[in-house]
Amino acid sequence: MIPIKSDYELQIMQEAGRILSQTLRRLKGQIKAGVRTREIDQLAADFILAQSALPAFKNYKGFPANICISVNEEVVHGIPDERVLKEGDIVSVDAGINFKGYFADAAFTLPIGRVDSRKRKLIEVTKKALYLGIEEAKENNHLLDISSVIQKYVESHGFSVVRQFVGHGIGLKMHEEPEIPNFGTPHRGARLLCGMVLAIEPMVNMGTWEVDILDNGWTAVTRDKLPSAHFEHTVAITKNGPKILTDFSQGRLN
Description:
Number of helices: 4
Structural class: alpha+beta
CATH class: Alpha Beta
CATH architecture: Alpha-Beta Complex
Number of domains: 1
CATH topology: Creatine Amidinohydrolase
Shape: globular
Radius of gyration: 17 Å
């Protein structure tokens, strides 16, 4: 059963999304060469707590940090530590918050200084795939309409979508029904209805879609060690089309 949110619940989730988007905007200005990933994690926690919200990832199923920071071949669930970011890295930041019992979730990938053209293209394609998927998140479409358009766009550029990890419903829990794969056949899956809220999140690899989990039990890395990118928004389905609750500014996540 996919939960349907009331207008009141959507108002709270919109506020959660606003706080999360403010958090990620602030982090973007601090992600640069010479910074330790643990410092970014602490900045996120300090700001979230100051907004009367909670970092949703902290201790979630035992996760030890406040946000996920994944670098280069790390796909998702990178654990912030003493690693120092350097020129040429690409960095994926995934964060969630709990505000008044409701969750919001979002992610982006940034290049550190100059990166090669293939890495830059990977980031651009992943971001575009997210927004193409969001465009399909509208009333009376099917769930896999989102999945299909993401897969088609990504693969048309010679990249691959991760299959082991998927998007998800979100609301009173971080992960609700439905699962939202980034691959699939259009016109299949659940019918989308107003009041559903989805965390749509393409994870795109430069090479193979296959991933492995590091010994820390959390961090997923590409099996071929080629780079990966990740973008995510929390999106509500409304009568007026998809509404991005975690928009980073007045425009898109750039």
